[in-house]
């Protein structure tokens, strides 16, 4: 078995591979320190949220009104009919149940 001499390039490559490793990185990183939210940090966080909201609204724009297409109108009427039927069926069911309970 022949051994390969460890050139500086091989040593460097091995060290880089260790540093790239997620496990090795976490071991070197440590656990860190928890920091309490200071009033300044809270102020900055709220400002950042406000800036994000303003930017989002600018990007979205005012929008364009879309007229109701025949398909949208058909779906809306179907939903109304389904709602009426469900309400009617629930009402009829309660009426039947109450009728049986009161006559029994």
UniProtKB/TrEMBL annotation:
Keyword hit for Repeat: yes
GO molecular function: actin filament binding
Cellular component, GO annotation: Z disc
Keyword terms: Actin-binding, Repeat
Biological process terms in GO annotation: cardiac muscle thin filament assembly
Signal peptide interval: none
Keyword Repeat attached: yes
Protein name stated in the entry: Uncharacterized protein
């Amino acid at each position: 078995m022949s051994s390969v001499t460890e050139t500086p390039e091989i040593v460097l490559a091995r060290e880089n591979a260790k540093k790239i490793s997620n496990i090795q990185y976490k071991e070197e990183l440590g656990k860190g320190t928890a920091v309490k939210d200071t009033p300044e940090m809270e102020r900055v966080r709220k400002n950042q949220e406000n800036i994000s909201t303003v930017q989002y609204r600018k990007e979205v724009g005012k929008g364009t009104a879309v007229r109701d297409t025949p398909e949208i109108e058909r779906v809306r009427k179907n939903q109304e009919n389904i709602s009426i039927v469900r309400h009617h069926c629930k009402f009829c069911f309660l009426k039947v149940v109450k009728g049986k309970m009161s006559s029994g």
